[in-house]
Write a structure and sequence with these properties.
This is Helix-turn-helix transcriptional regulator. Pfam families: PadR. It comes from Billgrantia zhangzhouensis. This protein is α+β, with helices and mostly antiparallel strands and 119 residues long. Helices cover 64% and strands 15% of the residues. It has helices at residues 4-21, 26-35, 42-54, 77-97, 99-112, and strands at residues 24-25, 58-65, 68-75. A three-stranded antiparallel β-sheet has the order 1-3-2. The longest helix is centred in the last third of the chain and has 21 residues, at 77-97. The chain is globular and about 55 Å long. Residues 106-119 have low confidence and may be disordered. The structure holds zinc ion. Zinc ion binds next to helix 1.
């Protein structure tokens, strides 16, 4: 993943977000992250899940289906708390760092109904 260090925190928050809603497993999470534009290999995601479990944000159980074993993760109370704190900070960052982008998009939306606009 390009810019790994910068984006790793966002990926972890994304994992927590889904692990709060339902149980997740590695391959599902890789596919989900791909929809959001993150390209992670199992070699990147699995150690991330393991370390989040070690730190108490996730808890896992293993389920064997025939010959295959799959590890399912869900968020702990600490994980919920961590995501809540991070969301406040994300809102703060979005408010500041994306002020211009947000301003631009609202101009676009309001100009759609404007007959004078060049669009
Ligand atoms: Zn998602």
């Amino acid at each position: 993943m390009k810019h790994h260090d910068l984006l790793a925190g966002l990926v972890r928050l994304h994992v927590l977000h889904h692990a709060i809603e339902h149980e997740i497993y590695g391959q599902w999470m890789i596919d989900e992250l791909a929809h959001h534009g993150y390209r992670l290999s199992p070699g990147t995601l699995y150690p991330m899940l393991h370390s989040m479990e070690r730190k108490g944000y996730l808890i896992s159980r293993e389920e064997s289906q025939g010959s295959t074993r799959r590890r399912f993760y869900r968020a702990t109370d600490l994980g919920r708390e961590g995501l809540a704190v991070a969301k406040r900070q994300l809102r703060e960052l979005a408010g500041e760092a994306m002020k211009n982008e947000i301003g631009t998009s609202s101009i676009c939306i309001s100009s759609k109904g404007d007959k004078e606009s060049e669009q």
